[in-house]
Design brief:
The chain is an alpha/beta fold. The chain folds into two domains: about 1-120 and about 305-370, Rossmann fold; about 135-300, 3-Layer(aba) Sandwich (Rossmann fold), CATH 3.40.50.720. The protein has helices at about 20-30, 45-50, 60-65, 80, 100-110, 130-150, 180-190, 200-210, 220-230, 305-325, 330-335, 335-340, 355-360, 365-370, and strands at about 1-5, 30-35, 55-60, 70, 90-95, 115, 170-175, 195-200, 215-220, 235, 265, 285-290, 295, 345, 350. The protein has an eight-stranded mixed beta sheet, with helices on both faces. Helix 6 (about 130-150) crosses helix 7 (about 180-190) and helix 10 packs across helix 11 (about 330-335). The longest helix has 22 residues, at about 305-325. The radius of gyration is 21 Å and the shape is globular. The two termini are about 20 Å apart.
Length: about 375
């Protein structure tokens, strides 16, 4: 199979979808790998390393899309890429369709096969291709939140862990999944007073067993959120409904409950955000203030630490990419049910129900294309 790796063109997205080591594994199996020049530079991988791995360098993004049967990316295609995508071409990347209808409709019109990292799902309900970036984003959420709590950056002027004789910051985490868990570990390690809200009692029991003493759990509901917001210094939005738009757990009117300089970090922004006042921002212009509350809503947080993020992501995606290249997408999805859950749009049809429901679009069962 001809596998293409374009350079990411989203604002400050420095990750790359395939390392030279991954390119070597593909070429060893007889596949052709086409990498856009400089695609790996942001993650610390030179063009020469890809050439040594057997890949062919391409001068432009148009050349990569033009030759490849399967496109490996990190983030969803953006508008300049829409016209480059061909009918029947396989795109394997993060899409987060439910957060952006124009992308959804553009991929329907393209007649491409869109296989989303974020909805590949194992039988135990785990999301193997979302986990590594959720781990990075959860840890970064605390790193960024602690930074923006500093007064010169618009925060309350609070040191996350405090010092002897002063109380530590209070961190409220909405969601006890992978993002929330890693955020809690980071915040707790810095000495903060942490509360995790979740709707699953078994999950909260698990978190209570593994977390240090400065982490508490509470049932997630509007009453508890409203009760905790007036004392929270840093709020992390870490809610995920696979493939669907995140629910708004913090509404606009709740901002009035918070102290001026409170920091909100909405990691769920790439699925629409779990904070109503959330809107996607970039690493170039990451924050804005509404009602004296500072919002950090960067949609590709792991892109700021591309070396770590690229290695973590490709460790998870490469086995699936190899299956897709070896077998073709239909046979690979027939053989691996977890991959079939990743199919969101196939040749103009929406096959992932949560995406269809979000925009009121017709839903075609994925089995229609796998027979």
């Amino acid at each position: 199979m001809k596998v293409g790796v374009p350079q990411e063109i989203k604002n400050n997205e420095n990750r790359v979808a395939l390392t030279p080591a991954g390119a070597k594994e593909l070429t060893k199996r007889g596949h052709e790998v086409f990498v856009q020049q400089s695609a790996g530079m942001g993650s610390g991988f030179s063009d020469q390393q890809y050439v040594q791995a057997g890949a062919t360098l391409m001068p432009s993004i148009q050349d990569v899309y033009g030759v490849a049967e399967m496109i490996l990316k990190v983030k969803e295609p953006i508008e300049p890429e829409y016209g480059l995508i061909r009918p029947g071409q396989l795109l394997f990347t993060y899409f987060h369709f439910a957060s952006y209808e124009p992308l959804t409709r553009a991929m329907i019109d393209s007649k491409a096969v869109c296989l989303a990292y974020e909805t590949v799902e194992k039988t135990d309900r785990s999301l193997p291709l979302l986990i590594p970036m959720s781990e990075v984003a959860g840890r970064m959420a605390i790193q960024k939140g602690a930074n923006y709590l500093e007064k010169p950056l618009g925060g309350r002027g609070i040191l996350l862990g405090g010092v002897p004789g002063t109380l530590p910051a209070k961190v409220l985490i909405l969601g006890g999944g992978i993002v929330g868990t890693h955020a809690a570990w980071m915040a707790a390690g810095l000495g903060a007073d942490v509360t995790i809200l979740d709707v699953s009692l078994p999950r909260m029991r698990h978190l209570a067993d593994i977390m240090p003493a400065n982490v508490n759990t509470m049932m997630s509901n509007e009453f508890n959120i409203r009760r905790l917001l007036p004392t929270a210094d840093l709020v992390i939005g870490a809610v995920l409904i696979p493939g669907a738009k995140a629910p708004h757990l913090i509404t606009r009117d709740m901002l009035s409950l918070m102290n001026p300089g409170t920091v909100l970090v909405d990691v769920a922004v790439d699925q629409g955000g779990c904070i109503e006042t959330c809107k996607p921002t970039t690493h170039e212009d990451p924050t804005y203030v509404i009602d004296d509350v500072l919002h950090y809503c960067v949609a590709n947080m792991p892109g700021a630490v591309p070396y770590t993020s690229t290695l973590a992501l490709t460790n998870a995606t490469l086995p699936y990419a190899l299956e897709l290249a070896d077998r073709g997408w239909k046979e690979a999805c027939r053989t691996h049910q977890d991959l079939s859950f990743g199919l969101n749009i196939v040749q103009g049809e929406v096959v992932y129900k949560a995406v269809a429901d979000t925009f009121g679009l017709p839903h075609t069962p994925v089995e229609t294309f796998l027979q």
